[in-house]
Amino acid sequence: MTDPTQGPLLFLDVDGTLLPYAGARLPSTPDEWDRWQRPTNPQLARVEREHGPRLSALPCEPMWATAWMHDANTVIAPLLGIPELPVAPLPDAPEEDEPGVLHWKTRALVEFADGRAFVWVDDELGDLDRAWVAAHHDGPALLHRVDATTGLTAADLATIADWCLLHRSTP
C-alpha cells in the first residue's frame, strides 16, 4: 500500500480536460491521433497556460492519466510551464469509447492508487465509473468531470484544491 502520509494523487487527463475541444474536429484514426499529440496541433493554442502554476500549487501529487502517456511531458507540460510528471500505467486506449461501459482507465487508476486518496480529472467520467470506484477503492476518491468544450476552469481547480486539502494526510 502507498504511504498514507502523502497527499492525494491527482490523475490528469489531457484531451477535453487540459486541451479543450471547443468545437474542434476530433481525430478518428490512429494516424490522426498521432498527429494530434504533436506540438504542431493548432488546437494546443487553447491550453490555458495559467493552469500550470495553479496545478503546481495544489496539495497533491499530479501525474498524467491520458492516452497521450509520455507525450504529455513533451507537449503539454512545457505549455503549462510545469516539470515532467509521472505517467500512470494505463492499458491501451480503445479506438472508440463504448457508451454504458466502464471507462478504460478506471480499473487501472484504482489499482495504481492502491487505497491512496486520489482525484481523477477527466471529461469522460460517468456514474458507472463513480459506482465502480466507490465499490473497489478503499480510500477517498473524487472523480471530477470537466466540460470537454471549455476544459478545466479556475472553479474546477478550486474544487480540486479544497478536496485535496480536506483529504491530505499528516504524518
Summarize the SSE layout with pairings.
Blueprint: E1 9-12, H1 30-36, H2 51-57, E2 61-64, H3 71-80, H4 106-113, E3 118-122, H5 127-136, E4 141-145, H6 154-166
Parallel strand pairs: 1-2, 1-3, 3-4
Short description:
The protein is of the alpha/beta class. 32% of the residues lie in helices and 11% in strands.
Q: What's the average pLDDT?
A: 91
Calculate Rg over CA atoms. 15 Å
Total strands: the figure is: 4
Count every helix, treating DSSP H or I runs of 4 or more residues as helices. 6
Order of helices and strands: EHHEHHEHEH
Could you say which structural class the secondary elements and strand pairing correspond to? alpha/beta
Percent of residues in β-strands: 5-15%
Largest sheet: 4 strands, parallel
Describe the strand arrangement of the main beta sheet, using strand numbers: 2-1-3-4
Shape: globular
Q: Helical amount among residues, as a percent range? A: 25-40%
Low-confidence stretches: none
Q: Note the gap between the termini.
A: 16 Å
Model description:
32% of the residues lie in helices and 11% in strands. It is built from six helices and four strands; from the N terminus they run βααβααβαβα. The longest helix is centred in the C-terminal third of the chain and has 13 residues, at 154-166.
From the structure above, extract its key features.
single chain; 171 residues; 4 strands; alpha/beta; 4-stranded parallel sheet; 6 helices
